Amino acid sequence: MQIAMIGLGRMGANLSRRLIKHGHQVVVSDHSATAVEALAKDGGTAAASLEDVVKKLTAPRAVWVMLPAGDATETTINRLAELLSPGDTIIDGGNTNWRDDLRRAAALKARGLHHIDIGTSGGVLGATSGYCLMIGGEKAAVDRLAPIFAALAPGDGKMSPTSTAPDGWLHVGPNGAGHFVKMVHNGIEYGLMQAYAEGFQILAEANDASVPEAERMALDIGAIAEVWRHGSIVESKLLDVTAKALAGDTALNEFSGVVDDTGEGRWTIQTAIERAIPVMTLSAALYARFRSRRQPNFADKVISAMRRGFGGHGEGKVAGK
Questions:
Q1: Long-range pairs for 200-207 at CB < 8 Å and ≥24 separation?
Q2: How far, in Å, are 14, 129, 146, 154, 268 from residue 188 at the CA level?
Q3: CB 3.0-4.6 Å disulfide test: which of 34, 78, 212, 257 passes with 296?
Q4: CA nearest 288: which of 260, 315, 250?
Q5: Distance CA 13, CA 18 (A)
Q6: pLDDT band, very low/low/confident/very high, at 155 (cuts 50, 70, 90)
């Protein structure tokens, strides 16, 4: 199939390369000419502008926007709406607030355009292992692009006859549902990461001078993280990236422990508050990130290591320094 990718950062570039690998024609566009040139060398079709993107696509067109949530995505979708024709589809694969999807989908529908929102999980590892896709939108629009979603997912193009969920992609509901599910996914992710981090802090301080001498234990937390990866009930991709980081330096000295949040954790908790749903673990995990920006500790370094490992995320600075 043919599709355009707008935004060639870590995720957009890797999504494009995976699609090209599976035989799809990908028109690529980015504000960075270097990024476009790199994808063109890998088999993408370079476009110099959004107008050029539309010209190089055959109707019905599909344009995937992979930009930061907010103004960049808003401006791009609005411009595409002016350029595209009825029956074309705009896909928002970034971490957009699901309520923005509802508004944009209604505006695009009035123009005869389809809107699909996709929660995309997999980070930098997804380029080789595939991405988990949580998709919201009209069924007909989603069904038409099924080969695209199947190529990006871990199933490597396979489409199961009864449900696509085992293949790593799923049409979860109407417009907004894809990003709503991804929002909750990331809220859960915050809680899981915090639990791992606090556990490793207990292990790391088992030999601390504050512990009674008879109770002190010098533990190799890198080796412990590794053994947990094999047969343990707590094994996961998050543990994989943690074990890799600890294998290099159990003190994680290269990390400050200042942990950012990208919005979805806050939106998850805001939604829970609006609906009177208690989310104690998810709330505490978010507040721990706020605290890390003032008083970072070893657990926060573990979270920073995880975030770099699965998403290539950097760290901020301690507040006031």
A1: 200/225, 200/242, 200/246, 200/298, 200/299, 200/302, 201/297, 201/298, 201/299, 201/302, 204/250, 204/298, 205/298
A2: 25, 21, 27, 21, 9
A3: 257
A4: 260
A5: 9
A6: confident
The distance of Cα 1 from the centroid of its chain, to the nearest Å, equals 24
Q: Look up residue 276 and give its DSSP letter.
A: T
Distance CA 250, CA 312 (A): 19
216-235 pLDDT per residue, tens: 999 999 999 999 999 999 99
Specify the amino acid at residue 4. A
Q: Which residues of 292-302 are buried (b: 16+ CB within 10 A; e: fewer)?
A: bbeebbbbbbb
CA–CA separation, 63 vs 56, rounded Å?
11
- Give how far the C-alpha of residue 294 lies from the chain's centroid of Cα atoms, to the nearest Å: 26
Tokens linked to 262: 């990208």
> Tokens at residue 251, please?
């003190």
**Which tokens go with 261?**
């949040």
Q: In whole angstroms, give the CA distance from residue 208 to residue 131.
A: 41
Q: Residue 88: pLDDT above 90? A: yes
Terminal Cα distance for the chain, rounded: 51
- Cα gap 131→134, rounded to integer Å: 10
| Cα angle value 40/117/190 (rounded, 5°) | 100
CA angle 129, 131, 137 (to 5 degrees): 160
Residue entry with tokens 């500790």: 297
Other Cβ atoms less than 10 A from the Cβ of 129: the count is 13
Starting at the edge strand found earlier in the chain, the sheet holding 132-136 runs: 45-46, 25-29, 2-6, 62-65, 89-92, 114-121, 132-136, 169-173
pTM confidence score? 0.93
Residues labelled catalytic:
182, 189
